[in-house]
Amino acid sequence: MSTSRGSDEASYLIGPGDKLSVFVWQNPDLSVSVPVRPDGRISLPLLQDVEAAQKTPAQLADEVRQGLSAYLREPHVTVIVTDFVGPYSQQVRVIGEAVEPKAIPYRTDMSVLDVMIAVGGLTQFAAGNRAVIVRRTPDQKQQLAVRLDDLLKDGDMSANVFIMPGDVLVIPQSWF
Question: I need a surface site. Which of 15, 16, 116, 128 has the fewest CB within 10 A?
Answer without folding.
Answer: 16
